[in-house]
Amino acid sequence: MSQKLVILGAGESGLGAAQLGKKLGYEVFLSDAGSLSEQTKSMLNNMAVSFEEKGHSSAKIFSADLVVKSPGIPDSIALILELHQRKIQVISEIEFAFRHKDAKSKVIAITGTNGKTTTTLLTYHLLKTAGFNVGLGGNIGVSFAKLICESTYDYYVIEVSSFQLDGIDRFKPDVAILLNITPDHLDRYNYNFQSYVSSKFRITENLTSNECFIYCADSESISEEIAKRQIDAQVFTISGTNKSGVTAYIDNDFLIFSHDKDLGKSHKIPVKETTLIGKHNMINAMAAILSAMNVGVAMSDILKGLSTFQNAPHRLELIESIEGIKFINDSKATNVDAVFYALDGINEPIIWVAGGVDKGNDYATLKTLVAQKVKLLICLGKNNTALKSAFGELVEVVESESLNEVVDLAMAKGVSGDVVLLSPACASFDLFKNYEDRGDQYKKAIRNRMSTIKVDA
Known about the structure:
The structure is a single chain. The chain has 17 helices and 20 strands. It starts with a strand and ends with a helix. With 457 residues, the chain is an alpha/beta fold. Helix 6 crosses helix 12. The chain is globular and about 70 Å long. It has helices at residues 12-24, 38-46, 58-61, 78-85, 93-99, 116-129, 144-150, 162-165, 193-200, 220-226, 279-294, 299-308, 336-345, 367-373, 385-391, 403-413, 435-456; strands at residues 4-8, 27-31, 50-52, 66-69, 90-92, 106-111, 134-138, 155-159, 175-178, 212-216, 234-239, 248-251, 254-257, 267-270, 317-322, 325-329, 350-354, 374-380, 396-400, 419-422. Strand 9 (175-178), helix 9 and strand 10 form a beta-alpha-beta unit. A 9-stranded mixed beta sheet has the order 7-8-6-9-10-11-12-13-14, with helices on both faces.
């Protein structure tokens, strides 16, 4: 008789786990407390997976041999507590997938409060550019289970969240990357920051001397936790501020690597070789480069990959240069911390486009950077009171509710060598559907302006 696999939640991870479970011969049942879309129902029917929606049937769930839980479901709800009491193992989809991957394949797993998507994408790109047979997934999009089910890769580069790590048991990446830990999702961890830190550190719990652990020594919470733990992996450290005692660091306009696993020599990579912007992205780049080094990617391929990488849309995305003025789309920067990184990472004079639905922002941390770097603030929103109050005495401020007008203003006020930075610090819902819509409309406005110039020429 086949084992019974129950999957809780019909998101990307749940559907991936269902697909893999069927392939492995499990008797699969999927249960979701919400309503399922017609597309999801069709997918489950095509896989011959029985399912329920709008509630959980306890009898069916408690008959499981194994439960795979969506990362969105807290461990504290009554159903999960009852499963534990009944000694029915509850795991995450990344744990389920890891158990069934080819034993020879290698996993590079990236986590952190910020920067994990960029680092995951760049790591994948470096391996792909070098000709490696590599899959990309996890929290970034395609589930790890679906990757395992549909293709056999030699390498898997996956982004993992704390919620996914909460459900691991044997999960042991060959290269584990921890970028930073700052307070986030604390409602899930009883508003206890240490619980969140411990969750992130689960990425290290099964590592041995055969695996690699890469972390940023600039993160105070990581360094404090490292001091408490015995981590048996080969450890590599990166820093944007320190040069001594770390594996990789930033030295003016260079990324310095003091270790090459195979060649035993250091490397010095000019920052200009990368397509990324900002010191925080140099941390992400160093983590990706070290992971590539540790799986045998040649430096020539790493350099090629750095120069051809395109980050995910709306993250410090260089769109065009018009008459020497660069336009950068950072529409995903919906909070003050993200804007700080953007302003800090640009050395040219900035025309800053910000605004939207203010979330009670405290702009104090931005004032020094704005005074030093911003020549004009264009407020893009229906109510710009908070922005004008915070920066009106530091910089010239104009207002607009049209991105076409924003681009025209930037061209009128800017000169060659300036950067026009859309980095809103606010939600988008006053004028746009979401941050993607805002970024897409910004790009459209820029390209409309370019086409006008070409016609005039």
